[in-house]
Amino acid sequence: MGNIIIFLIVSYVIYRVFKSYKRFQKIYYHDQFKNFTLTKEHLEQSELGLFVALTAKVAKADGRVDELEAELIGNMFNDISKIFPDPDHAKTLLKEIFKHEKEIAFNLEQKAQELYRSLRGDERKIRDMLGFWMNLAFVDGELSHNEEQMLQTLRKLLHVDTTLFEGMLEQFKSLYKNTRVESSIDDAYTLLGVTPQHSLNDIKKAYRKLVRQYHPDIIKAQGADDAYMKESTQKVQAINAAYEQIKKIRSQ
Fold it and tell me: Hey, how many other C-beta atoms are within 10 angstroms of the C-beta on 206?
């Protein structure tokens, strides 16, 4: 019961945080891209295309893309594509860019330098993008050596202050450690809003819906306070832990 109460309190706080984002004007918005020539070449050279390219490299840093990472990346495609006049075509091109860049290791420096020039040194955007990459690296429950090295490399190439970077990294490490709380299977079902009577397929649908709801939206992050990515990480990790716990029980 204690865990359920804590969950409800945390959920209310996160709800208030998410509601507060409506007060901010987004830096990326639809009208900016109404005259954008939506080709793969143009998208690859845009700051959002370059962000997706580097996201692919962060996702592949530990050698695999697990189920939760795939969910977050899929939601990222949805978020970014919505600001273009033809979202479906934009999403297709973004997926092509991601798939291509995931298999290429030698051009990391080039892509990061191109992104930095495209952003014109915009510190807010750089911090938000770095926060998303940290979230992606941490969300599977473990920050590998290769992932941390990748983040350090991006810090240098994007000219992020060392103290700022280390502070962000420590916050994510602390946040992840604080989410590793033992809970009962009943708490897991409650968190996902399902019951033991639901099929595993229904439970997966509920899980994916919650991940879509709370995942770190790089578009919404523009102009939001620093709590955004950290709150997203905490919530998504809790959702994923509950889902994994239920799957484990169901497989026995």
Answer: 18
